[in-house]
Amino acid sequence: MPQRPEGPGPRWGLIAIPILWIVAVTVVDVLAPPDIHLGPLLVAAPAITPSFGGPRTVGAVAALAVVAQTLIGVIRDPDDLLSANHEAQIIALMLVGVSLVVFCVVRERRAKELSQVRHVSEAAQRVVLPPLPGRLGPLRASALYLSAEAEARIGGDLYAAARTTSGTRLIVGDVRGKGLTAVNDAALLLGAFRVAAHREASLSELVAYLDRSVCRDLMEPGETGRLGETFITATIMDIPDQNGPVRMISCGHPPPIVLRDGRPTTMHARHPAPPLGLGDLAHPRYEIDSFPFEPGDLLLLYTDGVTEARDASGAFYPLTDRIRGWDESSPDAFLLRLRHDLLRYVGGPLNDDAAMIGVQRPALPGT
Fold first, then answer.
1. CB-side exposure of 261: number of CA atoms within 13 Å?
2. What mean pLDDT is predicted for residues 152-159?
3. How far apart are the first and last CA of the chain?
4. Other C-beta atoms within 10 Å of 244: how many?
5. Among residues 187, 188, 196, 301, which one has the least CA distance to residue 250?
6. Which of 196, 251, 287, 306 ranks highest by number of CB atoms within 10 Å?
7. Which pLDDT value is given to residue 38?
8. Candidate from 55-59, 118-122, 156-160, 277-281 with smallest mean pLDDT
């Protein structure tokens, strides 16, 4: 049960509810016939207070309930001061109050621990997946990540960009599996990409290097039985600064989409390669595909967490149909709309991690 912040307005507005309840029960019990006892209803006041208050607030309400029960006993039995029935009710209230205070203390401690874990995961994501710069040479770019883990902000999807002398190299990928193992595998591939993106002369050589890195780094020393069990689907591309086609190698990854004047076109690979990490099994030849990317176009890359998201009926998210006609002026605005539309379609959290990258070549002046 996450604790709500106890600001002055919300706290004092809500604390009136248990206080008024204590006052009402006390007045009615004092005025009721001798055979009617409403004192046990006082326990409701401290019981509802943890929903909006912390340990001190709960303790104060519980103490007020004990005082009210004592007052009821004194007024109703002035001769005996307190009957055995009222003493039992007072003891029960004290035990309930102490238990609720302990519960609130433990809850706050757990909430702080969870907050620290979230901060650590966010820091880890910034290290593994730093935000894409808003500008990649003449291109405008943006990235968005949605993690399927309920209490985490990071998963096995990945993306990165690197500037070269003539353009931008971009990678988007999806690690097989989930959890910390997937995060570790994603970090290994991203590290290899950042090292080699500037060094490898051709796109084919870069992809071959990445495949060797995955095969080497994801295999434990002396292991051979796991060959082929761990792999990463990825799309690696060169986007030139000047007008010209995008050069791409797709390694088992969902195809990118180019949005031109609100019309989406899926760029299927004519020469697909196997996922990274399977090179030792398939011995692929990495052939390059290309497609036009003109001024004003928006290039959308994504992972299968987007296209495999399902609605309540089990239907997959129809990405190209949903974005048809969208004319957002920037990649940031486009991805925010896509995120909102995707989550509304699913009606809740995603079942798989999802990464979305938007790259736009600005339109020429006067067009």
1. 2
2. 73
3. 55
4. 15
5. 301
6. 251
7. 83
8. 118-122
